[in-house]
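quick one, two chains, predict together pls
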Amino acid sequence: MQPTILAYIAGFLDGDGSIFFQLVKRKGYVYGYQIRSSVAFYQKTENKQILEWLKSTLMVGYIRHRKTGMSDYTIVEPYEVKRILKLLQPYVRLKGEQVRLSFEILERLQRVDSADDFLRVCCLVDRFKELNYSKKRIITSKEVEQFLEQHGFLAPVETDPVRERVTRK
Amino acid sequence: MQPTILAYIAGFLDGDGSIFFQLVKRKGYVYGYQIRSSVAFYQKTENKQILEWLKSTLMVGYIRHRKTGMSDYTIVEPYEVKRILKLLQPYVRLKGEQVRLSFEILERLQRVDSADDFLRVCCLVDRFKELNYSKKRIITSKEVEQFLEQHGFLAPVETDPVRERVTRK
């Protein structure tokens, strides 16, 4: 892809787009929650052609038109999120820290082999939300931790949980 | 300037920026109004560094921090607006029509030599606001026209004014 196309998309993402991670409760998931990654671009529905162009350029994701007159183009597949962020990384100026942390979350997520591991990735998702100054933190790693304890994946914590160094019984 | 820098700025402008024209009432102006051009970029004040980078890159304009937690970086000098839009034009995808109409307004404004001429440029400003889907059209060409008539610059219109072909007594 042409460097100026990638630089344009990086500018559009910095200006009006968003990179974010969510903890989503899911039946059938081993640890009870999905860590969902998203790269999203927003625009008034009147200007939906720019979202259609983005989709045809990046060749993944889906467009939704809201009743509010706003539309968004969103990519959620972790593999695609990683591929697109790799393409945009050299040109991003505002969301550089989000891009770096996205790679860390996506890479650690692939190597999760215990509830403890999983919880550590959830803590990175919390940190990501702080980067985004998100006000509505619906599900935090605290809730996942309680779930994992209740379901016997984690022993109850001995002292107050320190995110980066959890000590269990 | 590097093409990827210009493409990035064009993407940022398309995503979250704005090009607009305003009719501003001014004492001491021959035709009573100034036609003010603006190119503006918006961002939360927490992210003001991107606006500072834009300013240091484009080397004109000013940054304002609002009490709402938002900041903007705005360029208003017509010569600079034209120069910057010329630089960004090859990369802009969403505001292409605004860029084209900006050149038309700025070029016709330089050649104004009658109230009639001036009013025609004001009509282009109205058209520009429609492009931007602006809801608050504080001053339209209609008000300028009434002012010009009241001050003897224009003869009263014979029939209903048709914007592109005003017939006067």
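The longest strand of chain A covers residues 33-44.
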